Amino acid sequence: MAEELSLMELLLTNREMSKWREERGRKGQIVGFVPTMGYLHQGHLALMEEALRRADRVAVSIFVNPTQFSPGEDLDEYPRDMERDLKLCRELGVHAVFAPETEEMYPAGFQTRVEVEKLTQNLCGLHRPDFFSGVTLVVTKLFCAVRPHLAVFGEKDFQQLVVVKRLSQDLNLGVEIIGHPIVREPDGLAMSSRNTYLSEDERRSALSLSRSLLAARKLVSEGERNAEVLVAQVKAMIESEPHTRIQYVQVVDEKTMMDLNEVTSGAVMALAVFVGEARLIDNMRLWPE
Ligand code: AMP
After folding, report:
1. Which residues participate in catalysis according to the annotation?
2. What is the 272 CA–ligand 1 centroid distance (Å)?
3. Do residues 75 and 130 share a domain?
4. How far is it, in rounded angstroms, from Cα 92 to Cα 86?
5. What pTM does this model have?
6. In this structure, are strands 267-275 and 278-285 parallel, antiparallel, or unpaired?
């Protein structure tokens, strides 16, 4: 164990990352991968544990990707703590951390785009015009550097998970994409690096996100099937809290990301809400399990 702890490698360039991967390949090891933007919390660590269960060697990337932020969003304020992140990864038994600088990922002259078309139109794609093309670009680049057999993504960003599955399939990237359930604080708040933006008061208001989703699911279990009714209920619960500004609350099909009028077995309620300055997202399957 002590030996493993000291063995985690910090890789800063694509070249170093690829070399590490080649060595793992030569040994016939299964490589798992967890991409993150750092400021790690238990949600990220759960994804890493899942990867460690499924793979012989696990690489984690820590990179705040500028191409997925639009002007005016929180790229510059996004929380960072590399020392702490590296310690958490090392303690968990992660084998390599890939932490490139922006110039390493996007050197002068960079001009390539990667687009997944339909799945990115609704929900976050409607409101964050640059987001998904930035995500698909960076995920493609990271997959090229790491060439993992499998990668674990959180259901917290459930549209992103579906988009990345499509991307891996469409471009024959050969990466098995594994979804991991949302990790929540004991009081229900979905863990997020952005929760650090919340004041105590705002954090109390933010609890209305998970609370309203649970209330919607309860209504469905009692027989309600009308998406409009459910959306109105959820909006009212969130709007009754101070500091909240709803960006969207929608009921969509978990495969197509298209709006549903009626709740069926694939229905997911997804929402994005500003609480103070923090833009928080959450989602829940509505169908009783
Ligand atoms: P981020 O660092 O926010 O880009 O997230 C990196 C990965 O962690 C993504 O696959 C997220 O979906 C996942 N993730 C973030 N928060 C959570 C959470 N609370 N539960 C599960 N997965 C999460």
Report:
1. 44
2. 15
3. yes
4. 10
5. 0.97
6. antiparallel
